[in-house]
Design a protein that fits this description.
This protein has about 375 residues and is α+β, with helices and mostly antiparallel strands. Helices cover about 40% and strands about 10% of the residues. Helix 2 packs across helix 5 and helix 5 packs antiparallel against helix 6. This is Hisitidine kinase.
Length: about 375
Amino acid sequence: MKVLEYDKVGDWMRLISTSSLTTDDYLAKAIYNDRGRILVQAGTPLTKRMIARLSELNVTYVYIEDEHTSDIEVTSSISDERRQEAMNQIETTFQMMKESPDYIKSFITNRTAESMGSTVRSIIEDIQKHNEVVTLLSDVFSYDNYIFSHSVNVTVYSLALGMEMGLNRNQLEQIGFGAMLHDVGKMFTPKEILFKPSRLTDEEYGIIKQHTTTGFNMLRKAPNIPLVSAHCAYQHHERLNGTGYPRGIEADDIHLYAKIIGIADVFDAVTSNRVYRRAMLPHEGMEVLYAGADTLFDYEMIQHFRRSIALYPNGLTVHLSDGKSGVVFQQNNQVSDRPIVRVLEHHQQRLRQPYLFDLSKHLNVIVKECETTLVQQTS
């Protein structure tokens, strides 16, 4: 296999836990705030103060530069610029729909609907051009305003799932539009409840659940926003067995788009940083979905979703069932649980000459566990 060469800072990296960072580490991917401003620049030597700040911001994992994996590339399915554009669009739309009087909402909706549609089409094109399984790990672990960041992530995951299911362009645009707006009702949820770091009371959870109905009532009255988008907001927490909310409808009564967005919504929720728990890695988030297969979520859709995302992102340290250990080097499309690994160790013994091991060609070997603590090796 040909190894590509790159000359940009931050292209070669390893994923590790923020808790295992040291002052010998250099950040390989910049950390942004919710305004798109860089908090810590790529290539920066980390100080104790910076490391403490990342922990304060609930950044669970970061990419660092690593000489042992200097040819591993980490790319996102959408560019940082596209992500920021989408976040700004979502924030602007949500704020205007919350704050503007009814008599000018139609004007705002006319103006913003066209802009939002353009953003959705651009994201679709980015994903199609990327031509690989979707990975948002480098974005998920940046510090962003959760509602807006979450809406972008859910849009990307929903579109990736829709593409894998073979939906047409018009359907994809409708799903993208609905996904971007699915949580607009949360703008009316009190922040002290929405971002509460401890367990919600039953009363508080009831208030949280109101965001689906609030969003539906707002969107269904808005000109130039498809009615199906309103139903995406209304139904994305409904579940196949009727245990969801707000209406407790079942199976075929749930709109196809809401089922898709519901899967993307849960996956991003558990793989994102929250004030009350650490972010899961993608393969852990997938297990959450499988635990609800055919009771909460459509099993076939989960299978499609599994094929469309990177379960073991590039740069992640993995330990294989046959005693090999290394770092994920490259993805295998359609078999996201069987990436190509740069093997660095055999049975905890460092190799003088690492090599590539393609798990899609060795079906008797599986990823046994993942590691996000970097163990310093001697040459």
